[in-house]
Amino acid sequence: DQQVKQNSPSLSVQEGRISILNCDYTNSMFDYFLWYKKYPAEGPTFLISISSIKDKNEDGRFTVFLNKSAKHLSLHIVPSQPGDSAVYFCAVPTNNAGNMLTFGGGTRLMVKP
Amino acid sequence: EAGVTQFPSHSVIEKGQTVTLRCDPISGHDNLYWYRRVMGKEIKFLLHFVKESKQDESGMPNNRFLAERTGGTYSTLKVQPAELEDSGVYFCASSQWTSAYNEQFFGPGTRLTVL
Questions:
Q1: How distant, in Å, are the alpha carbons of A39, B4, B59, B109 from that of B91?
Q2: What are the tens digits of pLDDT across the range B15-58?
């Protein structure tokens, strides 16, 4: 059973509009969440994270929201730019040491000019 | 500063053959991780080295996979004999500290195709 799920495999958004990527998790004990971005033929790169003691973390155009009661997090990108087109993965450290990442299946974002 | 590098970028082999993937972490990073992504699905953890020691190999699928990190620098992941279901992209990552939530830097991956 997947511990981290991204139910939308793809999302298409117009440049300048908001992109919202969603992620659900199963274990209420998870206390740290990350978003990675991946371009073709490259490895994932860290984008933004949030601790479970917060419900929002913002970094420029990127904001992550955490809803612990719903076991749901989302990544908002505003305004979206064509260079944001990539696959976005949510990830959670799931071992006691906090360094084994469990990833969702990814959402491919396409931002149209 | 050089990032995580992986070699080869692509490998195509036949079922039953052996393949060895190599990862060079960022210099000074004691922690090295292997992950793989099969059939465009989620990226799954395989194992974690701290220097030359295996810290966690709970994600290794079976004994056809052997990872080594002699000397605590680069690492190799050998698949012997390869099966069709081993096809996918194998990512290596490294981090400086062993502490929780330390950022992991990923390499570009090796795309393995088993025919």
A1: 14, 10, 13, 4
A2: 999 999 999 999 999 999 999 999 878 999 999 999 999 999 99
Say if CB A38 and CB A45 are below 8 A apart: yes
CB contact under 8 A, A104 and B109: no
DSSP state, residue B104: P
A82: its two tokens: 């064509």
Reading the block at residue B71, the tokens are 């000397």
Name beta bridge partners: B94. B32, B105
C-alpha A15: how far from its chain's center?
A: 19
Residue of B nearest to A31 (CA): B101
Residues of A in contact with B9 (CB under 8 A): 41
In this predicted structure, what is the pLDDT of residue A103? 95
Question: Which one of B48, B95, B106 has the shortest CB-CB distance to A44?
Answer: B106
Q: Is the pLDDT of residue A8 over 80?
A: yes
